[in-house]
Amino acid sequence: ADEEIKKFRTIFDKAVHGNAIADLEGNIIYINDYFADTHGYDTDELIGQHLSIFHTHRQMKDVKQINESMLEKGSYDPIEVWHIHKDGTEFPMLMSGIIITDDNGNPEFMAATAIDISDRKNMESCLRQAQKMESIGSLAGGIAHDFNNILYPIIGLSEMLLEDLPSDSLEYENARVIFKAGQRGSDLVRQILAFSRQSENEITPVRVQNVLHEVLKLCRSTIPVNIEITHNIQPNCRLIMADPTQIHQIAMNLITNAYHAVEKTCGKISVKLKEANLESDDIEDIFSESGHYAMISISDTGCGIDPVRMDKIFDPYFTTKEKDKGTGLGLAVVYGIVKEHQGDIKVYSDLGKGTTFNVYLPLVGNHADVAVKKIETSQAGSERILLVDDEEAIVRLEKQMLERLGYQVTSRINSVEAFEAFKAKPNEFDLVITDMTMPYMTGDQLARKLISIKPDLPIIICTGFSEELSLNRIDTIGIKGLLMKPVVKSEMAQIVRKVLDETNGLDQE
Q1: Omega of the bond leading into 486 within 30 degrees of 0 (cis)
Q2: How is residue 263 annotated by DSSP?
Q3: What's the pTM?
Q4: What is the largest CA-CA distance in the chain?
Q5: 97-126 b/e with 16+ CB inside 10 Å = b?
Q6: C-alpha span between 246 and 238 (Å, rounded)
Q7: How deeply is 131 buried, as exposed, middle or buried, from its count of CB atoms within 10 A (0-12, 13-18, 19+)?
Q8: Of the candidates 486, 401, 494, 491, the residue with the CA atom closest to the CA atom of residue 182
Q9: Which of 30, 102, 149, 415 would suit a FRET pair with 166, their CA atoms being 20 to 30 Å apart?
């Protein structure tokens, strides 16, 4: 046998994959280092062992069939099999085999070539996960429009009831509960859209320290006093470019997670903010480029995270909390927001000792680099507005909102009828507010047709979600404003007044 193996040793020993030769009974007479190392053995340990040492018991029947087929056909094409490591763990290998014959053509040895495909399998798993995440994102976009249309009247009508009812009445308190529940539903939609990166965000210069102080104040009023919350927030931390609402959401979600981790042990929560230099703070493994970042660090002294579950904590709907403690979206949303802001998030955890989440968001320079402006405008008016939406309940609600502010409103629940009404008397309308997703003619299609008649007409699009409309395209269409459903009365009042004032040359900016 040694003489026969010499024919193959020169090639086999230099191979970048595993090679082995066995007699016809399956006893190993040669094996290279790759094959042995992959399975956790020294080469010498395997000489004389049966090939079954690599296979699980449930595979032995299949292996026997493969060997019988190879003896009959002379070889077998590459197939995927599960091998067993010396420590008992299983891993996938891609195998192929051939029969080595003697000079007379009689079978003499079995030769096998194998390569560990664990990395490939992991990549396939990641691809399937990415496809699942994409499906969730598509589903989120699909349901957002209908769900927001349901929430819109709940939020809008309860908000107007709060304006009308005495603040000390039971009816007022009931309306307040309805309003808050509607807002929670709206927040859930925004979380799903933020996770799927399909929501449009208002990116502005943000002082993270201000956001954290707001979050801490809110959390202190809701987290029991027996849970200690400490903070060390750098007061002169420079600005970041971000959606302030989403930064608020990052802090709230992480602090809530920390609270749930220490809730039963009366532990501590620590919130920190500081400027972090990639080079000096030794975080080179996080970013590919050097620079300065705002680092938000939220720690707890809770139970920690099981290392087995560490790679799943950012998966959507993965949660170890009790049924009423979370949806499994919190960390997935945080991860999506951080990545959308060109940042990163790192997790450090000791089981039984606690967990720390470090969020890194890029800084934009000194405080003086960017001026943050706030425009105060009167929210009432008397202009004439054409209101268009295919949901009758929403049209009725928006009409009430606008008329309370003093506007004169003409409403239509059909985009084609709205266009005909405008075409007949274009000068009788100072502004158009239209839904985006409607039958016969979508909001952006209607906008183009209206602007072709009256080029200086201001138009506001109101939508729950649309893949076809983004802030980057608004200017090219001629749309002056975008409202995301469900809209509260104050938001609608503000943007309507702002758009009208800009059109009339009264913008104070």
Answers
A1: yes
A2: T
A3: 0.47
A4: 105
A5: bebeeeeeeeebbbbbbbbbbeeeeeeeee
A6: 18
A7: exposed
A8: 486
A9: 149
